[in-house]
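Postdoc handover notes: sequence design on the structure in folder B. Input tokens:
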């Protein structure tokens, strides 16, 4: 009898386990990305999030699209426009959000190995914290520099990639049990470099995309928080928020009414640009939750750059470090001269050999070279005689100023004498 029920038991176990495994597979993990097009084949978005029919995307200009077709083999998807700015734009709250009075915010990283290839040397790690933790640290530091805000930045890791959302849920649940105003799962996306790179005023940074999981039964409250953040970002740093993606997953957002997933740049972007984007977004979070903060420097200003030298490539360098064309030319000439001297030493084999080659060059090649230069033609008297020899035709002086004409005529008469 046991053998008779064994296949049924195995099938039941398979049915119970497969949905859980599939439900956690919401993003591509190998550096690939989906490309989302509109009906006119214009690119709306490139993202490593697994796009499915029914997903929605609110772009930076508050145009809302719904996905109606997906080609999983070619990683392409198409979406139709279902609403424009007039119906979806929000007005940012001026005095903060009601109920956001704990002044505590949590940050964690489900995909712990996510990194930024140009800065970190790898796009992902499998056993240690990736560069995404440094991006989260910049966001946390920026928030903590505001008035009386505490940030809990979890340093837990959740390897391996597969099943990481189930493991991070334990930590997220522990954080959510404390009194929090918001909790963010900070990621980086997979996309080409230009997808997220942005210049805002004098800052070079990456954009931030907000992700709302629609499998959460109460996801509408998370969605409203995303709208509020985007509205404030559009006020403070236009084009900082790339958009809001409504994906078929829950991303542990059922644990808190203001829980969101953030995609801060992509694996092809510089981590330093992502850090600047994270600091700018921290300003947006603070202003959304608590109202406008006291005056503080922009996320890319020289004050913060001086405090953290790693941020210097994201903004203009201080005056003492600015160089010019002449400095670059002199540096290049110095390098070439040094390299040529060492090459001469290696080829001659000794310092005496170097001396002999230099003497030979001076007495032969250099002398022959300079002998070919018509030095007499560089003398002022020769140049003046050539200038005086110029003959102007009748009427050719009419367009010249009177003093120039008189000077030229005197020079011609003197030459005739």
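Designed sequence:
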């Amino acid at each position: 009898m046991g053998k008779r029920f064994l296949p049924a038991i195995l099938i039941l176990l398979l049915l119970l386990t497969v949905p859980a495994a599939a439900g956690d597979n919401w993003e591509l993990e190998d550096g690939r990305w989906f490309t989302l097009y509109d009906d006119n084949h214009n690119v709306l978005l490139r993202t490593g999030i697994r796009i499915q029919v029914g997903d929605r995307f609110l772009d930076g200009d508050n145009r809302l699209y719904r996905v109606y077709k997906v080609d999983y083999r070619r990683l392409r998807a198409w979406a139709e426009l279902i609403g424009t700015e007039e119906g979806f734009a929000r007005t940012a709250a001026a005095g903060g959000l009601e109920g956001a009075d704990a002044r505590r915010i949590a940050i964690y990283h489900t995909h712990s190995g996510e990194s930024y290839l140009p800065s970190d040397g790898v796009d992902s790690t499998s056993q240690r914290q990736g560069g995404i933790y440094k991006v989260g640290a910049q966001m946390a530091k920026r928030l903590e520099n505001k008035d009386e805000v505490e940030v809990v930045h979890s340093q837990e890791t959740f390897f391996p990639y597969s099943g990481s959302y189930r493991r991070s849920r334990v930590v997220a649940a522990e954080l959510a049990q404390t009194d929090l105003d918001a909790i963010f799962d900070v990621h980086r996306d997979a996309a080409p470099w230009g997808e997220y790179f942005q210049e805002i005023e004098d800052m070079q940074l990456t954009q931030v995309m907000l992700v709302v999981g629609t499998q959460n039964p109460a996801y509408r409250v998370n969605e409203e928080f995303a709208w509020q953040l985007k509205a404030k970002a559009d006020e403070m740093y236009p084009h900082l928020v790339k958009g809001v993606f409504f994906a078929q997953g829950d991303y542990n957002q059922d644990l808190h009414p203001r829980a969101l997933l953030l995609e801060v740049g992509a694996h092809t972007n510089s981590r330093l640009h992502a850090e600047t984007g994270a600091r700018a977004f921290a300003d947006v979070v603070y202003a959304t939750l608590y109202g406008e903060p006291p005056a503080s420097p922009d996320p890319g200003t020289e004050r913060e750059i001086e405090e953290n030298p790693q941020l210097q490539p994201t903004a203009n360098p201080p005056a003492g470090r600015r160089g010019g064309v002449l400095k670059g030319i002199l540096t290049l000439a110095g390098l070439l001269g040094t390299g040529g001297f060492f090459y001469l030493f290696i080829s001659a084999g000794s310092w005496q050999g170097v001396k002999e080659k230099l003497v030979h060059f001076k007495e032969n090649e250099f002398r022959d070279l300079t002998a070919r230069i018509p030095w007499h033609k560089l003398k002022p008297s020769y140049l003046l005689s050539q200038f005086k020899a110029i003959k102007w035709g009748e009427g050719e002086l009419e367009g010249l100023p009177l003093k120039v004409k008189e000077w030229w005529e005197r020079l011609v008469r003197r030459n005739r004498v």
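Context for whoever picks this up: Residues 65 and 80 are 5 Å apart (CA to CA). Don't rerun without checking with the PI first.
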